[in-house]
Design a protein that fits this description.
The chain is of the alpha+beta class and 192 residues long. The chain has one domain (8-156). Helix content is 30%, strand content 27%. The chain has helices at 41-51, 56-67, 136-150, 173-191, and strands spanning 11-19, 22-29, 34-37, 75-78, 81-87, 99-103, 107-112, 120-124, 129-132. Strand 4 and strand 5 form a beta hairpin. The longest helix is centred in the C-terminal third of the chain and has 19 residues, at 173-191. It starts with 10 loop residues before the first strand and ends with a helix. The relative contact order is 0.16. Mean pLDDT is 81; it is low at 156-166.
Amino acid sequence: MSQHLAKPERIAAILPCYSATGDTTKIITTDGLTNTSDVRIRTIVRRLALSRATDLLALKKRAASATQSSILQPLPLTPGLVLCPVKVRTPRVAGDTSTGYINYYAIKSVEKTSQAPYQAIIILVGGIQLPVLWTVPTVNKHLQNARLAMHYAPQHSHCGVHEDVKVYAPEIVPIIQKFVEVICDIVAAKQR
């Protein structure tokens, strides 16, 4: 069974982290709680996309088109979770990621810092301070890209057949999400 993630709207940051077991991922929620997972960031983002039945490759292509950037695209996964890439560490080993994701909606401010090697601090809701290796203008550029990508998110598309989601009862949404999780777990188990 896959590890349960926090509700997408409650995720403040998804960060790479070194631990005694190697390269892990730290998930920080908007209320300041931290959860460490033994899987890499790519896996966490893929699981988030699967839980929302979102085609991650198509989402990245759409974000790349909106931002005119071929790498480090923001990921508008849900109306309350727009993941902005930020460089948070220097990798120790080739192949380790240096980039984490911050939820656009969890950011209160971005400030300059004198703590070497960091150049900026992102203040998140709940008072969490996250030092990053990028400068304030670079962080702000990526936040601007996130705002652009939000306008091109799949929920705003008007192509093909489009159902009005208001016809569904909101109380069944958690059941549908759990159903998608179970299907993903079955598919993952069959691939092993």
